[in-house]
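Q: A reviewer asked whether we had any structural model of the full assembly, not just the individual parts. We don't, so I'm hoping you can provide one. Inputs are below.
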Amino acid sequence: MESFFSRYRNLVVLLAALVLQVIGLAVQVRKPAAGAPISANSHETHDAKGVRLIRLWASDLVTPFERIIHGSREGATGFWGNYLDLRHTREENKQLQQTIDRLRLEQASLLEDARQGQRLQGLLNFRQSYIYDTVPAQVIGTSGSMQSRVIVLDKGADAGLKPDMAVITPDGIVGKVRDVFPHAAQVLVINDQTSGAGVILETTRIRGILRGNAAGQPQVINILADQRIQAGEKVLTAGGDQIFPRGLPVGVVEKVERDPDRGSFINVIIKPAANLQHLDEVLVITSLDAHLSPQQMADLKTSEELKGAEVAADAERKKAAAEMAERLPSLTDPNAPVDPNAKPGDGKTDTGAPLPATVPATPKPAPALHPDRFSPGGAVSAGGAGTETGNGDGVDGDVKLVAPRAVEPKTAPKKPQTANPNTAKPPVKKPPTAGRVQ
Amino acid sequence: MQVLTPDYRRDLEIRRYPIYIYVLVPLASLVLQAWLPRLMGRYSYFDLPLLVTIYFALNRRSAIHGTLLGAVLGMAQDGLTQGAIGIHGIANTVCGFLAASIGVRIVVENNAIRMVLNFLLALLSSAIVVFITRGLLGLGLEWNWIDQVFKAVGNAVIGLVVFPLLDRTQIRD
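A: Here is a predicted structure for the entire assembly that you could use as a starting point for your response.
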């Protein structure tokens, strides 16, 4: 056995290393639910303790050096430039040339400082006008892998950063915080293939999910082919992912490509609003609760006072209208007692039952003193078949006119059977005074 | 073929380095791998931890050394990404083992051989990463092979410059 291990120890060590790492991978990868498609996000979002420990070690190993390099980059650049510029200068002009170069370097340094000051001023102005709590941070590193679009910030848990916080710039969104360490944090940028953000196209109002592609470009996926989507359309955050506030700029549509796997779907390639390749300063949204300036608070208070006065006046008007309605009697009181002496046709049925209050009384012309053939209902025709108007039930004040015999058809058209059996009534035998208004 | 096979005992001897080189060079490769893409953006076609793994595996001519160094550096690389720990670890482990196994059979001082080895092992590393990501983990990530070829070329060119510099740090008898 000993000779076996000593003979194949290289292979044994290789297999052991591979097996251990494969087991580690199997532990980390979450098995998707039954029937659910395997997605790029199927590994655990929140790492196990051991995995997090490895990430913490890697971050602690690299981040301090990145911080030092980032901090001394300007000085090193100046030193290198100074070295190159002055190395081959003639001795007699050395002092003068050094002075000139020093002034140039100082000017360049001041110019860079001024530019940085302008950038920071812009960031500060944006932060002050922004209603959420934010923490400014500097980008000091990346993941170093083309398959992993991750940046490293110089702020961590000590600055109040937590996972899943949104990272933005005044130009647009950048990504979300993934892992937080004591003095650093990893941010998953929106052009990573495992990232995801809910977005909406500004004009067409089409919603989708933002995700990176293999080339490192953010794209909106799972969109049905739509001719209305054109290059140049703005893309905003939709606000439904509980990470990015609604309405933040994401970018503009660069081009539309057909999904190679699903023909009816398209991928909308986005040109990000923020320069994701060269990020310097970013803002991390630490709280989505409204954080208003004193001026904004005063405006809000004034608005609420005005709104309260308006609501009170509206309530007062409604109360006055209710009191007025109580004092004034209505035109048709459904609770009024039935008048037994009421004549037929004055709002009551033939049986004397009162009409429902909702049925309006049909105006009736006054009966003619000497009816003739031109009088309404004046065509005297004994026993002639008449033409009914209304529904013929005599309830709703129908006027029953009797047509002259000359135009009377031999067989009077039957009234169509009413679908509702309750309203269908047998034909009423007309009294001999037919032709009068009933 | 004469160029490939070692003729002298000197060609097969194990190169030794000061202990700080074993610490600083891998650490520098990790830091630069994480920091340089900030300056170079999407044109950062290199994999410095893999390059360091190959260098020490070739020159130490120890498969165990190459395997363990590749595993540690690869896992540290994974720790800086949002991906699962072990993806680059396995790739660098295999590359370290193969580089050490090749190093005992051929002359590794030749620059052309070093370039070819760096190019091929970088491509193999990318292929292993793809296999693990898609095959083992089932993650539907897109892949751009042109980028991987550029990365292999970048590693070959950088190795051409860095390997002779690292050769100077070895302990002479």
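A: Points you may want to mention in the reply: The CA atoms of residues 71 and 140 of chain A lie 9 Å apart. Residues 33-44, 342-360, 379-438 of chain A have pLDDT under 50 and may be disordered.
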